[in-house]
Design goal:
Blueprint: H1 2-15, E1 19-20, E2 35-36, H2 39-48, H3 50-53, E3 57-60, H4 67-75, E4 79-84, E5 86-94, H5 104-107, H6 110-116, E6 118-120, H7 122-128, E7 134-138, E8 141-143, E9 148-149, H8 155-165, E10 175-178, E11 184-185, E12 200-202, E13 207-209, H9 227-232, H10 234-249
Length: about 250
Amino acid sequence: MNHKSSVRERVFTELRKVALPDSRFHYDFGEFIADFAGSDQAIDALMRHRFYRDASVLFITPDNCLEQLRYRTLLDGKCILMTTYSIKRGFWLLDPAKIPAEKLLYAATLDGMERVGVPVTLADIRSRFKSVDYMITGTGAINEVGIRFGKGHGFFDAEWGMLYRIGVITAATPAAAVVHDCQVLRETLYPEEFDTVADVIFTPTRVIEVGAPHKPTGGIIWNLLDPHMLETIPPLQELKEIESSLQATV
């Protein structure tokens, strides 16, 4: 964990040179994933990639660098599942078939999505979608074999674990990371059992394909979960109830 912190500090020093400040958190990269110079080029590459072309339902994190991706995905007529700010307010669905065209850009923003989108529970997601086809995130830092270092909260890994547990994603579901080139590390790192490794990394200048990335298949590992996350995140509480009900019927 100390090593991860030192990596973040090193990367964040370089990121500040190219990052766009957040209206709430300024340059506090421990609180948000920044947009950066050239993010539009990374998004262009992502949208040309086969994973995006083949996807109908995408999970896209609420990161600043992905706002234009969310907007352009809605313009493409694809559904977006996401959380807002953090997972503490749960999952939201943006369905472009039910959003007026003039509100699509607003819907792609963090402020707009809660006014235009629809909140959904895990039960809603499981009943509505056969699958979520693509998982996309920003991150604080990542190495060339797809091991991510986010803000340190573990939200994306928790989101993966919940969606995996309800059966809408599998170990074969692709995951992508969108970052600036300065956020890509060359050092050797090893994923923990709950880490979701990216299949592909998109930067303003590179597309890095990862061979056989590690994907967690244990759902939520409750004994490793920060108790505060369970106390404050309603979807985790819902999943805990679902799993408790299943165990009670066995």
